[in-house]
Amino acid sequence: MERTCILLKPDALKRRLAGRIIARIEDKGYIIADARMLQLDEAVLREHYSHLADQSFFPDIVKYMVSGPVLAMIVEGENAVEGTRKIIGATRFEDAAAGTIRGDYAFSTRQNLIHGSDSAESAEIEIGRFFARR
Ligand code: DAT
Ligand code: MG
Q1: What angle do CA 8, 11, 13 make, to 5 degrees?
Q2: Ligand 1 centre and the CA of 110: distance in Å?
Q3: Atom 11, ligand 1: residue with shortest CA distance
Q4: pLDDT digits (tens, 9 = 90+) for 18-31
Q5: Residue 78 CA neighbour count, 13 Å, CB half
Q6: How much distance in Å is there from the Cα of 47 to the middle of ligand 1?
Q7: Residue 75: strand pairing partners
Q8: Domains of the chain, with CATH numbers?
Q9: Which residues are registered as beta bridge partners of 34?
Q10: Would 80 disulfide with which of 4, 52, 68, 88, CB 3.0-4.6 Å?
């Protein structure tokens, strides 16, 4: 059993895709172990996206990610980190295969609907970051 941290980003909620995205995660056999709506701020995004802080597009990511609430979830299952990233699809929306969440719904790389942790270690850090607050 492994845990991962999933965020449904502001565009997923604004476009009312949350139900369909969660259905794909559940259909694959994963369990939604916890969930909460969060309004993120720049400080937490600087931590969460520290690997991108030097990129020219970083301010745009922050602007987008604070534009509305996100739905943070703890998702559990065998190989949950790798398995959910397969369902999510590639970062660049042009590269995301049909049948993946980004491949089927995203039309922008910045606004690519969903975050999934990239390792079991980052999953635990992210769960601490988003589920210890408030
Ligand atoms: P992922 O979300 O697939 O783990 P990442 O961690 O490399 O990808 O990047 C985090 C987010 O930053 C990504 O979901 C969308 C945004 N992003 C990454 N590369 C980008 C780019 N070249 N242009 C615009 N946004 C980008
Ligand atoms: Mg990432």
Answers
A1: 60
A2: 6
A3: 110
A4: 999 999 999 999 99
A5: 2
A6: 14
A7: 4, 32
A8: 2-131 (3.30.70.141)
A9: 74
A10: 4
112 Cα nearest atom in ligand 1: 14
Confidence (pLDDT) at 133 = 55
Residue type, 125: I
Distance CA 17, CA 11 (A): 8
Model pLDDT for residues 62-85, shown as the tens digit of each residue: 999 999 999 999 999 999 999 999
CA of 134 from ligand 2 middle (Å) equals: 24
Q: Give ligand 1 pocket residues (Cβ under 6 A).
A: 49, 52, 57, 61, 91, 109-110, 112, 115, 118
The whole-chain average pLDDT of the chain stands at: 97
